[in-house]
Amino acid sequence: MIINITLGAVIKEHRQWKGLKVKDLAKIVDVNPVYITQIERHNKLPSRKVMEKIAKAINYIELLGLWVKEKHPEIQEINELIRKYKDSQKKYSDRVSKKNK
User: Fold this and answer.
1) What domains lie within the chain, and their CATH numbers?
2) What digits encode the pLDDT tens for the residues 62-87?
3) Residue 27 CA to its chain's centroid (Å)
4) d(CA 84, CA 21)
5) Per residue in 69-78, is it b (16+ CB within 10 Å) or e — as a string?
6) Got the DSSP string for the chain?
7) CB 26, CB 58: distance < 8 Å
8) Is 33 helix (H, G, I), strand (E, B) or coil?
9) Alpha carbons 99 and 93: distance in angstroms, whole number
10) What's the rounded Cα separation, in Å, for the pair 10 and 55?
């Protein structure tokens, strides 16, 4: 089973865990509470500046990594291509090493 956890769901979970209401987080981040709700419902993707403030407010800096993945999905594709390339290079290197023994 594949579980798709959105950035908004993670923000909401950590906000609640910290005991913050939507209006509390909005005040800390200096945005409208409606905007926080839209982010949590995955209707809006925050700017980097807002995302940094949210991450600091809920003390979850790893959130920035999720933001990057959602804001720039092509980065994830590039990382996957790099991983595959490195894997193929390692396999090639292993084969060459075995032949030279």
Assistant:
1) 7-72 (1.10.260.40)
2) 776 766 676 666 666 666 666 777 77
3) 23
4) 43
5) ebeeeeeeee
6) ------HHHHHHHHHHHTT--HHHHHHHHTS-HHHHHHHHTTS----HHHHHHHHHHTT-TTHHHHHHHHH-HHHHHHHHHHHHHHHHHHHHHHHHHHHT-
7) no
8) helix
9) 10
10) 11
In which residue ranges of the chain is pLDDT below 70?
A: 1-5, 64, 66-68, 70-82, 101
Task: For residues 36 and 20, give the distance between their C-alpha atoms in angstroms, rounded to a whole number.
Answer: 12
In this structure, the chain runs to a length of: 101
Write down the pLDDT at residue 3: 45
